[in-house]
């Protein structure tokens, strides 16, 4: 079995949270399950920029990336956040390898929208390096930075990076661990299960906005790309990964419309 776990939000910001998740992932890997981790670090990025007097601006949940912001992306995402996470996995007994999408052109991107600056859309994921690491017992830890064949660097939404890697690798399950309990409907009630069509309705109806809107767009793309199941779940819940792998009702489970129709 092969899974991809995307980590984000405050889960990466606190040492106790990182250490706890690292131990959970170590336990999963010890059972022979191959795991890839993709991470963001938006809260750390916003704080880093604010400390330098740079305002963070977002459009549809995506950070507008100026040259100054892109420099911070490399320092924070591919630097501090990635290395702190790798260190946590090492302490948990997992031989982890820190990467970004620039390495071996793991994630090739193109500009998404001129108004967003250096924000990229992943157009191709070359996951041979990830498979090589997995086959030799390593845990790849991928920061949400991408590049192209001309040497350009892009800030990429971590959810989109996770989906691109998950589809290319052919994982059995894509798991988004977040700092919220899951996807909420228009009445602010937790959706235990969603199809891609229902997720689209939450977006169009205004129930899902900002970061959750971006996450649902990514999840829909993952289902369309062949990922059998996507889970959006609270990373702070004890033993959350084990619960998900046992298919317990944790967070929001997303499946394709075709699966429900069968």
Structure explained in plain terms:
With 262 residues, the chain is of the alpha/beta class. It has a single domain (2-261), classed as Carbamate kinase (3-Layer(aba) Sandwich). It is 40% helix and 23% strand. The chain is built from nine helices and 14 strands. The protein has helices at 15-30, 42-51, 67-91, 128-135, 158-169, 196-204, 210-224, 240-245, 257-261, and strands at residues 2-7, 34-39, 58-59, 62-63, 96-100, 107-111, 120-125, 139-143, 145-147, 153-155, 173-178, 193-195, 230-234, 252-255. The strands form four sheets. The protein has an eight-stranded mixed sheet, sandwiched between helices. Strands 3-4 form a two-stranded antiparallel ribbon. Strand 3 and strand 4 form a beta hairpin. Helix 2 packs across helix 3, helix 5 (158-169) packs parallel to helix 7 and helix 6 packs antiparallel against helix 7. The radius of gyration is 17 Å and the shape is globular. It starts with a strand and ends with a helix. The model has no long low-confidence stretch (mean pLDDT 92).
């Amino acid at each position: 079995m092969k899974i991809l776990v995307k980590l984000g939000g405050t889960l990466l910001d606190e040492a106790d949270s990182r250490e706890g998740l690292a131990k959970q992932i170590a336990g999963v890997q010890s059972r022979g399950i191959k795991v890839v981790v993709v991470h963001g670090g938006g809260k750390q990025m916003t704080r880093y920029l604010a400390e330098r007097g740079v305002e963070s601006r977002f459009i549809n949940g995506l950070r507008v990336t100026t040259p100054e912001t892109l420099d911070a992306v490399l320092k924070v995402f591919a630097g501090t956040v990635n290395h702190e996470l790798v260190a946590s996995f090492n302490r948990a007994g997992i031989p982890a390898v820190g990467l970004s999408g620039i390495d071996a052109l793991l994630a090739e991107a193109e500009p998404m929208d001129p108004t967003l600056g250096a924000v990229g859309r992943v157009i191709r994921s070359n996951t041979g390096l990830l498979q090589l690491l997995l086959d030799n017992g390593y845990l790849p830890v991928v920061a949400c930075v991408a590049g192209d064949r001309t040497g350009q660097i892009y800030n990429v939404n971590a959810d989109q990076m996770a989906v691109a890697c998950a589809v290319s690798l052919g994982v059995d399950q894509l798991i988004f661990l977040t700092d919220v309990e899951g996807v909420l409907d228009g009445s602010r009630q937790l959706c235990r299960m969603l199809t891609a069509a229902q997720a689209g309705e939450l977006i169009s109806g205004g129930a899902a906005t900002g970061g959750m809107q971006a996450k649902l767009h990514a999840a829909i793309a993952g289902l369309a790309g062949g990922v059998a199941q996507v889970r959006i779940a609270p990373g702070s819940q004890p033993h959350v990964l084990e619960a998900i792998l046992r298919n317990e009702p944790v967070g929001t489970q997303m499946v394709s419309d075709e699966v429900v129709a069968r």
